[in-house]
Amino acid sequence: MPTALAVSPAVVDTVRIAALAHTADRLTIRWSDGRESPYPAIWLADNRPDRRDRPDGQRLFDAIDLPDGIAIGSVAVSAEGSVEIHLTGFDTPARFDAAWLRAHALDPASRAERRRRPVLWGSSLALPAGDYAAVTSDGGARAAWLRQAYDHGFSLLRGVPAEPGMVCMVVELFGFVRETNYGRLFDVVAVDKPQNLAFTALSLGNHTDNPYRDPVPQLQLLHCLEAAAEGGESVVVDGFAAAERLRRETPDAFALLTRRAVPFRYVEPGKVDLRNRAPLIELDAEGDLAAVRYNNRSIAPFDLDPDEVGPFYDAYRRFGRLLHDPGLTVGFRLAPGDLFIVDNQRVLHGRRGFSAGRRWLQGCYADKDGLTSTLFSLEAAR
Ligand code: OGA
Ligand code: ZN
């Protein structure tokens, strides 16, 4: 039988502990907003604050060293609101901060709150943008710009000096350049003997970059140094919004794209031979979208059971049409000094063809850990 305790309120911002109950196996807290959060005994033992008191937050012990058959002996709330729990096999009670327990609660609503929810968008997106001078000089402006990139998978930055190399300087505001066979950065200009269709004046369909790499570059930045007089507009589309629409409208097509790997390849004879096999839509362990890959230039012949080729093409073409659907895409024109960042595992970019005038972009890649680490550190410091 659970042991119920009436307790004096412990303040967690505005949410307080209303009641506690426990069995040997678990503690249950009822919060003042009605939420009920269970905490299994072994989880409490493993997360005892006195086992993680190093200033860097790293733990000194391993779960394999926990005693077997941990049970909750008694529970009390202290005057200042912390929860004191006697666990079998330990000499001293564990003292948990109520706010910490709320922040790490295991009930479905609390777990859902901690899950990342990307902000999906379509053609009506008002393009998020930061200002270079503000982002370089002010942590709040930098966090706001990175937050847009994190939530939308896309953000513009205006007023970047239109000078070569600046795209790497922008990466260094939050992370580290990911160098590849194209260099630390690459020039996107039309040349006579292009190694890659990007280096022509042709239009580029919406794509993610470099799906032939493992790991794929997670972020891409493109910085405009010179804009063509005619054409060359950029296009972006939220691949997650398109994938969620596919999941809603044709769940079988969606499932097929998540369950079959396709080959991607990029070759410069004698020099470069990059290959990867991966699904066009990748899910995480919880079934949420983790990544999309789409690149008509580097997708290689499908390696599938012949009976599956027809349904796979149906699904692939359906996804491809969604990724070019005017209701989902956003077009804009980069002026010299404009830069954009995309989450290359979510947002596709493309460009219209161009004719008159010189056009010069510089691009480079980076990874998301630098972005998220800088973002979360700046936000936590405010
Ligand atoms: C690229 C690319 C787009 C552009 O270089 O990866 O997609 O606008 N370029 O030139
Ligand atoms: Zn590209």
Explain this structure.
This protein is an alpha+beta fold and 382 residues long. The chain folds into two domains: 3-114, NE0471 N-terminal domain-like, CATH 3.30.2020.30; 129-381, Double-stranded beta-helix (4-Layer Sandwich), CATH 3.60.130.10. 25% of the residues lie in helices and 30% in strands. It is built from ten helices and 23 strands. It is elongated, with a radius of gyration of 26 Å. The protein binds N-oxalylglycine (OGA) and zinc ion. Zinc ion (ZN) binds at residues 198, 207, 209, 349.
Key features of this structure:
382 residues; alpha+beta; NE0471 N-terminal domain-like; Double-stranded beta-helix; 2 domains; seven-stranded mixed beta sheet; five-stranded antiparallel beta sheet; elongated; binds N-oxalylglycine
Number of strands: 23
The CATH homologous superfamily of the largest domain? Clavaminate synthase-like
Structural class: alpha+beta
Integer-rounded radius of gyration: 26 Å
Q: Give me the number of helical elements.
A: 10
3D shape: elongated
Name of the CATH first level of the largest domain: Alpha Beta
Instruction: Tell me what the CATH architecture of the largest domain is.
Output: 4-Layer Sandwich
What compounds sit in this structure? N-oxalylglycine, zinc ion
Number of domains: 2
